[in-house]
Automatic annotation (TrEMBL):
It comes from the Bacteria. Its cofactor is Mg(2+); Mn(2+). One of its GO terms (molecular function) is metal ion binding. It comes from Sphingomonas turrisvirgatae. The keyword Cytoplasm does not apply. This is Coenzyme A pyrophosphatase. Residues 31-161 form the Nudix hydrolase domain.
Length: 198
């Protein structure tokens, strides 16, 4: 996957850069750095580990997300933050993750600039969700979530602004917003239709 991320392309991919900004945030305010772990399972048909956030969280309650959060001063950059957050949220041992590298950053509606960190993990690990943050941990087929056919563009009115976003529906799970946008970017960066056909 690292080679695919670095491979030269004849045309640059069109990437998504940010959600519509929250009207309560200062437009000049610097975004808060954050990182998420894009954990790909090392199996013949790779999967992707996602979480469903608890319904009691102040922001993004009940939504599907990658394990992750803000980058703390003690973290070793985005990779350190992604590994720490994955340990805290789902009990993933950092030693079990083979880091591939960072992907394209994405700015969220809530003022975070998120660096997705791609890593490969063994299949069928037992996860321990942190009950205050994570309601469920599940695996989706990587080829499904990266296939542009499954990237549905939708829109909704939010704070008086039409917000356009992508969503990916799999197995009763609605993956949308920033998580879907990062998957769309990864698909475009990898030129997934061509890569999947190779």
């Amino acid at each position: 996957m690292r080679a695919a991320l670095d491979a030269p392309r004849t045309t640059a991919p069109v990437l998504l850069s940010e959600d519509v900004r929250d009207a309560t945030l200062d437009p000049g305010e610097a975004p808060m750095p954050a990182a998420v772990l894009v954990a790909v399972t090392d199996r013949r048909a790779p999967g992707l580990i996602l979480t469903r956030r608890t319904d009691t969280l102040r922001r993004h309650a009940g939504q599907v997300a990658f394990p992750g959060g803000r980058i703390d001063p003690d973290d070793d950059g985005p990779i350190g933050a992604a590994l720490r957050e994955a340990r805290e949220e789902i009990g993933l041992d950092p030693a079990a993750v083979e880091i591939v590298g960072p992907a394209d950053r994405y700015r969220t509606v809530t003022g975070f600039e998120v660096t997705p960190v791609i890593g490969v993990i063994p299949p069928d690990l037992a996860f321990t969700p942190e009950p205050g943050e994570v309601a469920a941990v599940f695996e989706v087929p990587l080829d499904f979530v990266l296939d542009p056919v499954n990237h549905v563009e939708s829109s909704a009115q939010w704070q008086g602004v039409e917000r356009r976003y992508y969503e990916i529906n799999w197995g009763g799970h609605r993956i949308w917003g920033a998580t879907a946008a990062m998957l769309v970017n990864l698909s475009r960066r990898l030129d997934w239709p061509a890569m999947a056909a190779a």
